[in-house]
C-alpha cells in the first residue's frame, strides 16, 4: 500500500503558480481562481484582464448581495438549483460564501429534496460538465481516463452507479447530481478544499424505461450490466482512482442493497472508503436517538424498535444502535433481539419461507410471521418506529395512535427521502400523539405549531456526520474508515445538541453551527484512528486547532499581494 504521508493532504498549489499559468480569459474561466468583478485594478493589469470585465471593481459583499438577489428572484426550486450550479461552475469562492450564509435555506436546493428532481431532469438541464463519467464501454481504459482529471491533489471522491438515487430508484448516469451535491456539502460543512473533490458516476446502463427512451438522456442507453462483469467494471474504476490518489477517501453513494454491502465488504479493509447510506445514515440516526432519549429519559438498551424497510440504510442504523446497546451492557445477540424488521413481504423471520438477503439474516426473528405494520405494532408495542421504506404515509394515524397506547412518548423517525416519500409528516406525528412525540425526518420540514407551541423538528441529514468523518480521516491520514469512527461521530453529535434544542423538539443541532460540529466530529474520528493505530500522522497536542486550520474558507486570495 502506498504511504499517504508521501502525498499532500488539503493544500492547494494553484494560487502559488497563478502568475505562470493563468492569465486573461483563462483566469476568469477557472471557477476556483475567478474573482469576477472583484479583481482589483492592479490584478486586472497584472493578469491581462483589462477590457474583459466591467470597469467597476466590486467588493465581495457587493457580489454576495447580487447573487443573493438573483437567487431569490427564482420562483421554482429547480430554477434555484440551476442558478446555484451555474454559480458553482463559474466562481466557487462566491458559491460557497453564499451557501454558508444561507445554509438552512439552500441545503434543500443543492441536496435533498431538490437534487432528486435535478437528477431526474439532468439531461434536460445540463449546462457544463462537472466530475467524471466512467462508461462501461470504456472498460480497459479507466486508468487512462482517470488521468484526464486535472487536479493532482484529490482528497475525497464520491462515486455512484446511479442505481438507487434517494427514493427515486434507477437514474443511471443522471445520478451524477448526487456526488456533486454531497461534495458541495463536504466543502461547505467541513472545509474540504473544492479543488480536492471529485464526483464520479460509473455508467453501467439503466433499467429506467423513461431514460432509455429519452432523446436527451446523457448516459449509455442499454440495460444495466450485472453479475461478474458489473463487479469487474467497478473494480477497475476503484483501482484506477486508488492508484492515482492513494490517500483519497472514496465514498460509495446510492448503490442498490445487493451491491452496497458486497462493495463495502470488499474494499473497507483495503483502502480508505465507506458507504454513506449504510454507515453515515447509521451514525446520524443513532445521534438523533441518543438525543431523543434525553427527552424520554430512557436507556437505549431498553428500547423496542420496529424498522419499516430492511435495506442498507435500515441495517446500517440498526448495526450502529446495536453498538450503542452493547456499550450499555448488552451482548450483541441480546441487542439484536430488540429489533423487528418489516420489508415488502412483512416481518423478516426465519420461518416465512423465502430466501433472505444476507444483510437481513442477523435481524431475522424466530417467531410467527406478521404481515402488516399495524399488526406488528400491536404485537411488539415498540418504543421506536424507524421509517426507511420510501413508502409515503406508511405511518398512518392508526399505526401512530396504536403505538401511543403503549408508550408515553413515542420516538418516530420518518427518514425516507425526498420529502414526498416521508412515512409521516411532523404535523401528523404531533397531532396523532397529542404533542407527545420525538420526531425526526430525512428531508426538511418547516417548523410547525401545535396547541400554541412551535416545534422545530429535526432533520436526520447525513450532512451532520459524513463531512466531519471525511475531514478527520484526511487530517490524521487514516488508512481506513471503521464503524467505531461513525459511532464516535454519533456520540459527539448527540452531545452537541443543547437543552434549548431539545425543548423545541429538535434532536439535531442548528445547521448554522455545522462547521463547529464537523470540526468536533473530525477530532473524535482522529482520536479513534490514533487509538486504533490506523493513522499515519502522530497526534498533535492542539488537535482541534489543527483541524480548524485545515478547513477551507471561502475568501478571495489577494493575487496582487504575491
For the record, the count of structural domains works out to 2
CATH superfamily of the largest domain: NAD(P)-binding Rossmann-like Domain
Q: Return the structural class.
A: alpha/beta
Q: Please report which band the strand proportion falls in: under 5%, 5-15%, 15-25%, 25-35%, 35-45% or over 45%.
A: 5-15%
User: How are the strands of the largest sheet arranged?
Assistant: 8-7-6-9-10-11-14
Total beta-strand segments: 14
User: Average pLDDT value?
Assistant: 93
Can you tell me the CATH class of the largest domain? Alpha Beta
| CATH architectural grouping of the largest domain | 3-Layer(aba) Sandwich
Determine the number of helices (DSSP H or I, runs of at least 4 residues).
25
Tell me roughly what share of residues is in helical segments: 40-55%
What's the end-to-end separation, in Å?
Answer: 38 Å
Q: Could you name the CATH topology of the largest domain?
A: Rossmann fold
Query: What coarse outline follows from CA principal-axis ratios?
Result: globular
Unreliably modeled segments: 1-9, 12-20
Compute the CA-based radius of gyration.
24 Å
**How is the main sheet built?**
7 strands, mixed
